[in-house]
Write a structure and sequence with these properties.
The complex is a heterodimer of chains A (115) and B (113).
Chain A: E1 3-5, E2 10-14, E3 19-21, E4 24-26, E5 32-39, E6 46-52, E7 60-61, E8 64-69, E9 74-79, E10 88-96, E11 103-105, E12 109-114
Chain B: E1 4-7, E2 10-13, E3 19-25, E4 31-37, E5 43-51, E6 54-57, E7 64-66, E8 76-78, E9 87-94, E10 103-104, E11 108-112
Parallel strand pairs in B: 2-11
Antiparallel strand pairs in B: 1-3, 3-8, 4-5, 4-9, 5-6, 7-8, 9-10, 9-11
Classes of the chains: A mainly beta (115), B mainly beta (113).
Chain lengths: 115, 113
């Protein structure tokens, strides 16, 4: 099984500032997908951003962007201009491009946004 | 579209009782999944289905059963509930392998006492 590691159980950021959440993964595959999911107190999992491993360009979605370092097996999430609504648990996830049926999730990072 | 719906939202079971967690999606997705999320942990895959009549085990299938008689429904059955099954359960769906995003339901919080 693949492993996904989020080494920051908790992070905090001042409103309007930038924060980066870390994620590393372990795989021997060359074709895979990486995701960041947000889980607010409502518990619903919401897709924030995704990255295909074959793409060199880092994915961006409005205030959310990733730093994908394939050789280092690193996939960090940067949140710019943080808002109070960004406070949530953030999960990094991996999915194989070959066998593809299973997602592997990290243990999550709890983000607090300070007004 | 309602997306992925789960019932119930909360449930308390006694040890040894059984129950079924319901999951329905109205997006005509072929793939459906059941995860559990223990406190402070990420999601672990219990079972998944690639289409009606086809199911397969995930990482943590012991103590659970599933069926997929229709595209829309993917119930999860707990037989002989144990305290170790206290968790939040999420159902998810996706259209196919080529579309990589999973859509999640709101979750069911289960406590076994």
């Amino acid at each position: 099984a693949q492993t996904v590691t989020q080494s920051q159980p908790e992070m905090s950021v001042q409103e309007a500032e930038t924060v980066t959440l870390s994620c590393t993964y372990d795989t021997s595959e060359s074709d895979y997908y990486l995701f960041w999911y947000k889980q607010p107190p409502s518990r619903q999992m919401i897709l924030v951003i995704r990255q295909e491993a074959y793409k060199q360009q880092n994915a961006t979605e409005n205030r959310f962007s990733v730093n994908f370092q394939k050789a280092a097996k690193s996939f960090s999430l940067k949140i710019s201009d943080s808002q109070l609504g960004d406070a949530a648990m953030y999960f990094c996830a991996y999915r194989s491009g070959d066998t593809g049926n299973q997602f592997y999730f990290g243990t999550g990072t709890s983000l607090t946004v300070i007004p | 579209n309602a997306g992925v719906t789960q019932t119930p939202k909360f449930r308390i079971l006694k040890i040894g009782q059984s129950m079924t967690l319901q999951c329905t999606q109205d997006m005509n997705h072929n793939y459906m999944y059941w995860y559990r999320q223990d406190p402070g942990m990420g999601l672990k895959l219990i079972y998944y289905s690639v289409g009606a009549g086809i199911t397969d085990k995930g990482e943590v299938p012991n103590g659970y059963n599933v069926s997929r008689s229709t595209t829309e429904d993917f119930p999860l059955r707990l037989e002989l509930a144990a305290p170790s099954q206290t968790s939040v359960y999420f159902c998810a769906s996706s259209y196919s392998i080529s579309l990589t995003e999973q859509f999640f339901g709101p979750g069911t919080r289960l406590t076994v006492l």
